[in-house]
Queue: 4 jobs
Job 1
Amino acid sequence: MGRWRTSLLFYRVMASSKSINPKFCPNPPLRSSNFPLPRNRFSNFRSFSALPSPSPFYAEDFDYKAPNFDLDHNLEELKENEDTGKILVKAFFLCTSVDLKSMQAENSKNIIPPTSRSSNYIALRFCNPPLQTGSVIEENDSCCRYMVVFQYGSAVLFNVEDHEAEYYLQHVRRHASGLLPEMKKDDYAIKEKPLLVDDMQGGPDHIILKNLDVDSIRVISSVLGQSIALDYFVSQVDGIVEQFTDINRGMEKSGTFTMDRKKLFQLVGKANSNLADVILKVGLFERSEIAWRDAKYAQILDYLREEYEVAQRFGNLDFKLKFVEHNIHFLQEVLQNRKSDLLEWCIIVLLSIENLIGIFEIIRESTGIAI
């Protein structure tokens, strides 16, 4: 009796394990209601595993999360939309003087009529760009390139790519003098948002405008042109300060001053000319008539001057020039003292010669020797 029950139980366990695999038994036989099968006691047992089940607090850490490709795609589209409404602005300082009259005569078709009495710059519009990136270009203001050239050597380009900038700078070089061996460059950006509540809004390395017009271009280019020119003059003054620093270190070691007077005067002239160029040519403290007439342009002007720290940078430049001026006065006094010492020695020599001649005359008269 026990053997029969054991064999029947083993048969049921094997049958249940075979019915789990569908490939093994695709169509299991139906059970007959007339012959009830004995109850399988093993079915009441819970499955046992050597690995502990994950805690419900940490179960979600093991869940597989599919990457959200739609979110990445939306971020890329948002970035592309931001770049689409961006207008590139590039400022260059490539020379110390530009003949605006000859340049205006050569590019008369592209000249934008001035709206103020300022004569230290000209604005040009190029609606037929020489280089295209493969996109269809329509005849509207958004596809036009703008260039503002200042008499002191700055040129500001609007809506111009990097590979197109050299073409427009050639227009400036043909009428420039004092070309720099290495021109200075600065990048900025403008974004247009017609639905903007205010007329302008600042951002990191860009400005948001409700509407970009020609007067806005003039105001923005004036600040960018002054800023890039100020960088050049600051570098020139830094070179002068470095030379005086080397002179002072040499005096500290040797205790003497061996600088030529001519070279000192050249440094004096260079420092004074840089200060005069910043104040007179660049017009750092001249008012803008466009900003004077309309408050929204004055807001743009004040924001950009604060953004580029024009006043603070000029203050640093003025401090360095005062240091140069102090050293110049000191070295001039040293040279003047040297010159005074030389004159004193010359006087002493002449007086000595005169005394010798007087003594010789006295001796001749006393001895009666005729020479």
Note: The chain is about 50% helix and 10% strand.
Job 2
Amino acid sequence: MTYIPPERDEPALDQTRQLEFTPPPMPSTGDGGPVDPFVGRVHEAAEPAEPVRSTRDRVLFQFIWEGILLLLTLNALFLVYRDEDALFGDEFGSLADALDPHALYLTPVLLAALAIGLSLRLGAVNLAVPAIAIVVGWVARPVDANLWVHAGFVAAAAVVAALVYVLLVAVFRVPPWFAGLALAAAFLASTQAIERFAESRGVDSIAMWDPPNGVYVFAGAAVLAVAGGLIGLLPGVRDGFSAVKRMADGGERRAGAVFLLLGGTVLSMLLAAAAGFLMFAYTLAPTTEPTSLGFGPYGIGSAAIDLQLLAFAAALLGGTSLWGRRGGVLGTVLAVLAVWAGMVLWNHAMVEAGDASWQDDYAPLIDVGILFVALFVSFALDRLGQPKEAIEPEDRIYTQEMRPFEPMANGPDGTGLFEPTLPDANAQQR
């Protein structure tokens, strides 16, 4: 049986006929070109903002250490005062009479410690600083019979050496320690040439200056140390030291860092030259006779310590960081006084015990022990004095209290799920 559909009066629709529909015009840009409505707006990638970090050091620990160092220094000075008759009775009569020459002998040590401390805080350790003090103070002959002219030559040599050092570090990117070592070798190798130059100028003898009041000279150096320490407390100055450190380590060269390195190196070289010039002008040298003045760089045998080693130990004991930037205010002066008092007491014990005594055997080990204690102090203050680092946004800890889960009002009861609205359900509302 075949089904025959009934005939319809309506004509059959042509399913292939296209609808007559004109789409709306496409939007265009200002130059007439079409705009694709499906292309989203291109956003420029924003660079991630670096978190703002605090650059202020925690100087509280530095002041705490200087307070402890002050107590230790006062204790050492009291021991010297208590034994003044045994220490200075036969040589000077009393401590008051011995204070003047001892302060004069101690001033070059303080100046050398300030020079090395400034070089350390710059972050570019200049090993030529102690060399220039040694060459000027002990080896190099004067180039003129007038000491003031000789002082001018010494200052000029220090400035030239500082310019060469900055040129090597900032321009040729030579590591600071190697640049200083090369300059130190140049200073030591030039002593014979300086002697030839002095002979060519006909300088056979020179009239030395009369020793001044050593207490005033040492007090002037101490004021210079405190003033420099106060300036170093400024956050801007410390940030400049950090910039010099980054440049010396191979980072970006900036004009401010270069000029700060130049100024600091010149000042450091001049302080070292002043230390050596004082030793030469006032004949501050070791003597073969047993004396209370034979401490540190002026000692003989087991009592002797190199000037650079003693200056490094005093600078580090004062709170100067080996890693740059940080330093103390009064710490270097206190460290120099404390080390001097300990050396005077120990040297007297060696003289009383005689040769081949345990005091004489252990004297070099004590010097090395002081250096290691100074290294520990510098390391501890550097770690404690670092600023607190700000927490970066991606590392922040979520501390907001979690809310209990509540189902949505439009979802099925008790499921908490979103119920989508189907098109057929909304067909009558359109």
Note: The mean pLDDT is 82.
Job 3
Amino acid sequence: MRIAIAGGGLGGLTLARVLHRHGIDAVVYEREASRSARQQGGSLDLHPESGQQALADAGLAGRFRSAARPEGEEHRIVDPTGRTLVHHEPQPGSFSGRPEIDRGVLRDLLLDSLPDDTVVRDRRLVAATPRPEEGWDLTFQGGHRTTCDILVGADGARSVVRSLLTDVRLSYVATLVELHIEDVDRRHPDLAELVGPGNLWCVGVNQILAAQRLGDGSLRVGVSLRAENRPIDTYRSKRALLDIFGGWDPRLTALIEAGDSAPRPRLIEAMPIGTRWATRPGVTLIGDAAHLMPPVGEGANQAMLDGAELASRLAANPTDPESAIRAYEEGMFTRIHPIAEMSTRVQAMMLSPTAADDIVRFFTPQPAEPSTAG
């Protein structure tokens, strides 16, 4: 099997790593020209049943523990006055929950576990056409061409491979505006103390101001707003963001003022819940290409689990990849449906007029119902 993986994100790299452990070669075609081509985003909490399970299947659980930050699981939720609503503190040094790891660190961990020639860089897939007998002709930006027997779309929200299987349309669900603050302990010790070692959410009406500690001593700041008909360029200035949070405690809005560069807005989109497609020989999808969801903590975890499960299916049935792909897809559809429903509910809850009360209930354990047994 000549396996081509379009996209060198966490899902595609996990797929390649688990295949490699089973003695199956694959080539990952990555659009970025180098590891450092762009900032890789924030920190991820890896769940035991998904992201951590995928790393165990990849033989990387030990390396993950060496690189992860259990203290990053600490989570503070406050209202616009700075009043604490929820404060979750993990057990010191415990990996039993959802320890944090920077996305870039996790990606490097996966990259370093692969043979040097696995990832081919500066290859943005622009077209895939079926070959007369079987397999695919792949065309990349710039005119590069190659062929494969099996094509896996790990190419994210704007997947090119997805169009081979479904014409599903994405829907706009929120706006996210990001800022970055370097060397926060030295330059902004007050903000370092405010955020702590993990995550801070400041919850208002239809809007959230959040900050997240990264392992390199920086903060990633995010402003989440409900989907609306404003031009996205509206949010490219700090002044516009500060106006949105007028009346909030200045200790909180200082997170916006301290940003080291102009705000970076982007639209958050999602696929319809329950999206499925008929299995097509020699092609399938993983991660955001398969089930783009609101970003509430499941996307990377499910992408990695997709990669691990697809690799295991292909390794278990190498002479019948079509059956392996069909079994993977059926399992993935069943697994993702309730997670996509939950993610949609949480996204709506977080950006609602009653978000503060709803989030407190969500994070507060409910007392058990009294027993009626006689």
Note: The mean pLDDT is 93.
Job 4
Amino acid sequence: METSQSCKEHSSGNEEQEQEVAGLPHEALFLVLPYLPLLELLVMSEVCMPLKDAVKKDILPWLNIIVERPLNLRFSDEILMKVASKANGRLKTLALINCARITDNGLQRVIDENPLINKLHIPGCTALTPDGVISAVQKLCQHPHHSLKSIQINGIYNMKKEHLETLHSYLLTNQKQQQVQRKQKPVLYHNYSKFQGYRWEELGRIVDVEICPKCNEVRMVFDCPREECRRKKRDQQNCSLTDCRMCKFCIPRCEECGRCVQLGEMEEAVCADTLCSDCWILLSKCSFCNKPCCWQHTNLQVSSVGSSGWICCVCHDKFLSSDDVEH
């Protein structure tokens, strides 16, 4: 009887142990976590208690916080502080892409808790002010172990020339500025639209904006892939003097190839974006209006039943009923 009872207890203990082991996440999960986007991390932490504990206890996934769509629409100061606190003061990358609800106060609180941030990318954060950005950069650069490598501030309202100069004074010594200028790669309009903002330093730029040579405003200034313009750039010692190296407000650029587009070369598209003649010819057209869509607006195309072509949503709404087409 005692032996039988002992066997039952031993068997029961093994079953409980197996259940506990079965409930633990696989070790491979911890290799994957640092590569997951923020949205997936947050969703995973809500699945079950073992996953929640695994995500909470592993600090590596929280060292680089990158907030993009669709999270950016709901990201507030309170949520940012809660997420950033998971890094335990060791946050390295803070990329808030078009987070319109983040304020100077929220950004400052995160900087105070994480003074070792080396990438601060806040493009399109329209609730931030130039003074708030400068205050954050100043605090990061004055830390004894300062490691800030790049900032991205395109889309911050009311950024003036003097603000940009102040930021440069914190980030760059004369020697470092010369080194950066030698490593700079061209910034092409069509590539920038597809480029991940938090990898900005790969282009050799510490600050993404500069003074436009034409309008003298602080904006993104783009180079041109057109061969004639590149030849001018090579022939001139100062590449900023090329005729078309300026912001997109001062010269139109093709959404597909990024080249500067003169008035006689501009072609109509279904969307409001600019296309050059060469790209317009290559793109497929709407079967009704003979207008193409740029790469960003292929969602405006409606497939026609029994046809390999497509119809733009404007023509669809104007001429056709829903029975004739399918999305």
Note: The domain at 63-207 is CATH 3.80.10 (Leucine-rich repeat, LRR (right-handed beta-alpha superhelix)).
